[in-house]
Design a protein that fits this description.
This protein is about 55% helix and about 10% strand. By secondary structure, it is mostly helical. It is elongated and about 70 Å long.
């Protein structure tokens, strides 16, 4: 068969992963939360205190989205007062690595336009 005879079908973005990237990157706090977790700040109260402008309501929304996508997981401890901690899942590690590579790409683009 000749290469000229091959018909290619239209390629579209993967639906679920594209929606995940749009949602996570569209949330201006997700990348900050990943940075906090990378620095062993994994409790919500400590996160809010560590970032100027971050509110508990916005943080909870951000954390909930990340849990829904399987990027983060919530661990609840049966203590008084109750203690909750968040950590990155194995899938989340892969996802964050992709975002890190995108940041590197952006830095390369920025450097080439100087």
């Amino acid at each position: 068969m000749n290469n000229k005879d091959i018909k290619f079908s239209r390629k579209s973005a993967p639906e679920k992963s594209a929606r995940m990237v749009e949602t996570i990157v569209g949330c201006k706090w997700s990348l900050t939360v990943y940075s906090l977790l990378n620095n062993d700040i994994n409790r919500p109260g400590e996160m809010v205190r560590s970032v100027e402008g971050l509110t508990t309501k916005v943080l909870n929304t951000c954390l909930k989205r990340n849990i829904e996508f399987g990027i983060l997981e919530r661990e609840t401890f049966n203590e008084v007062p109750p203690r909750v901690e968040y950590k990155v899942t194995r899938f989340g590690d892969k996802f964050i690595n992709i975002l890190t590579e995108l940041e590197k790409l952006q830095a390369d683009i920025d450097d080439s336009t100087l």
